[in-house]
Structure to design on (297 residues):
């Protein structure tokens, strides 16, 4: 029987409608609207689409959004100045720096400059540290999206062997931290996994991936994971987004993997819509944090 399709788009819509209510309640109670400021440097077409989608998603749930654009040849100092000024603005709660930045700019220097309370992507070392200690301030967006899909599809991870292919700071590494934590904001069933992280230097990758109850691909190579790399009835989560001549493709070869897996996330319509949605959730959280940390006692 072909694998069950885990519909990330429908789950994202559900979470967005829940968020719309929470944002509206927050605005009524506190008298202000959570706001996200996006910074876009240069005119990379894919980045422009991503930022536009994030702004539209903000509109859908009632979050205010601002776009700050800098030219491709903007200096690191100019960008730092912009981040600094957004850090100081009380009516900006979340700051998003769209990646990738031009090669002339040191990405870590910019991300480190974002105020940790406004760091809705959860890239700041303080927030990464808190996550690694099992007391996250913000959940990183794509890993949180993966957890939400599994949670809402009633696929607990506790006690399961999860194999992640990819160890990036954005996906693989923080996802491993969340899955192997002792608890999760989504409940202990969505933590306590036994996690193996694979990467380009892993020997005999298929041997590893075939051990997985849940296999997560975050590689950046179109259709890399094939059916013979997947254990019978495994759950497969495809984080990859690759632009190919035939359009968007995931890191998983859906055709062959669907014959073996019990469930699979599609691309598009899988983890992508969840990533944007979890950014909105973090923006609301940032507004709550700023409000409660500055409120007189
Ligand atoms: P990345 O920073 O390029 O990391 C890719 C990881 O895959 C690295 O750890 C790399 O290993 C590993 N890898 C590369 N080739 C491999 C191979 N042949 N065998 C085993 N491992 C291999 O990418 P990323 O930012 O994590 O993104 C991964 C994918 O997810 C991309 O397609 C990206 O577009 C997509 N993505 C999607 C979303 C979403 O919302 N759905 C969000 C973020 C990213 P090394 O560390 O050894 O180099």
């Amino acid at each position: 029987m072909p694998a069950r399709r885990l519909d990330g788009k429908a789950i994202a819509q559900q979470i967005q409608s829940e968020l719309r209510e929470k944002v509206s309640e927050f605005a009524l109670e506190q008298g202000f609207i959570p706001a996200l400021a996006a910074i876009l440097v240069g005119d990379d077409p894919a980045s422009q689409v991503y930022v536009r989608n994030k702004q539209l998603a903000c509109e859908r749930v009632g979050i205010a959004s601002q776009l700050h654009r800098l030219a491709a040849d903007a200096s690191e100092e100019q960008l730092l100045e912009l981040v600094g000024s957004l850090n100081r603005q009380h009516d900006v709660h979340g700051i998003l720096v769209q990646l990738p930045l031009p090669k002339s700019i040191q990405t870590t220097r910019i991300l480190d400059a974002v105020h940790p309370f406004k760091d809705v992507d959860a890239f700041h070392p303080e927030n990464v540290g808190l996550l690694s200690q099992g007391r996250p301030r913000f959940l990183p967006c794509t890993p949180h999206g993966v957890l939400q899909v599994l949670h809402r599809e009633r696929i607990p991870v506790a006690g399961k062997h999860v194999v992640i292919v990819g160890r990036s700071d954005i996906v693989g590494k923080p996802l491993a931290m969340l899955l192997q934590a002792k608890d999760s904001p989504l409940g202990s069933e969505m933590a306590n996994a036994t996690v193996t992280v694979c990467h380009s230097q892993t020997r005999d990758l298929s041997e590893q991936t075939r051990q997985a109850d849940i296999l997560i691909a975050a590689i950046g190579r179109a259709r890399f994971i094939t059916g013979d790399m997947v254990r019978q009835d495994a759950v497969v989560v495809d984080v990859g987004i690759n632009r190919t001549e035939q359009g968007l493709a995931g890191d998983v070869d859906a055709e062959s993997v669907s014959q073996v897996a019990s469930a699979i996330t599609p691309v598009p319509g899988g983890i992508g819509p969840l990533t944007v949605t979890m950014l909105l959730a973090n923006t609301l959280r940032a507004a709550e944090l700023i409000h409660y940390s500055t409120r007189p006692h």
Notes: The CA atoms of residues 117 and 265 lie 32 Å apart. The first helix runs from residue 8 to 30. The chain has a mean pLDDT of 97.
